[in-house]
Design goal:
Layout lengths: L1 H5 L3 E4 L4 H13 L9 E6 L5 E8 L2 E7 L9 H14 L6 E4 L4 H5 L4 E6 L2 E5 L3 H9 L8 E6 L6 H11 L4 E6 L9 H12 L26
Length: 226
């Protein structure tokens, strides 16, 4: 069995095609997952064309990774994930994240990922120092005394947002308002950042946002309006 797996290629499936999309959806459903928005979906298939392992990537987030029960002793996950890491690097993403099941932690740790956050049924991991570097960049905004933080989408910035900032600023020595960076709103990130900075004025410091607050990686359901 393992000799057969060694001869298989990792293929990118065109999930824009209804036929291939259905095949991936059925594979993921059989493994307790659903297909999410991905830029690329790669698979390892058996000689008769059945998907044995698959995984996708959307910008800097690896997702929808699964190995069929019959192939879980075949060592397919590592080469598949390595291909996804390479695709991410080709597109300029060096700090990749993955949202996966806790039982997959050891596999991703063996490929250089480390834990960022965990819940009973899911974990978030990263293979770079992105979070560490971003936290370090925020430290310069802190003061001795009481620090406050608001994470704000501001789509757009309204008088209600201004009132929230005024009330929060009155309770702390330094208020920091961090904009949601994810481009899933009607207004672009750059425009929302500008609105927040102008709307807050001298009431708060407004640094650049990141993918570590509310994003498709850390809080995907925030963007599902229904």
């Amino acid at each position: 069995m393992m000799d057969t797996f060694d001869r298989l290629d990792i293929q990118e499936l065109p999930i824009s095609s209804p036929l291939f999309r259905q095949e991936v959806e059925e594979f993921l459903s059989a493994n307790g997952l659903r297909l999410e928005d991905v830029d690329v979906y790669c698979t390892i298939q058996s000689p008769d064309g059945h998907i044995l392992a698959g995984g996708g990537i959307r910008k800097d987030v690896i997702k929808c990774v699964a190995v069929s029960e019959a192939a879980r002793s075949g060592g397919l996950a590592a080469p598949l994930i390595s291909r996804l890491i390479a695709i991410g690097a080709e597109n300029g993403y060096t700090d990749l994240k993955v949202f996966t099941k806790p039982e997959n932690r050891a596999i991703f740790e063996s490929l250089g990922f480390h834990l960022l956050a965990e819940a009973p049924k899911a974990i978030l991991m990263e293979n770079g120092r992105g979070l560490e570097e971003y936290v370090s960049s925020l430290r310069r905004y802190a003061v001795s005394g009481r620090n406050g933080v608001i994470v704000m989408n501001a789509n757009p910035f309204t008088l209600g947002h201004r009132y929230l900032v005024e009330q929060a600023a009155a309770q702390v020595d330094r208020l920091v308002v961090i904009p949601v960076r994810e481009e899933s709103s009607r207004f672009l990130y750059a425009d929302r950042l500008d609105m927040i900075r102008k709307g807050c004025g001298k009431l708060a410091m407004v640094p650049e946002g990141s993918d570590y607050q509310i994003s498709a990686a850390t809080f995907p359901t925030y963007f599902l309006k229904d």
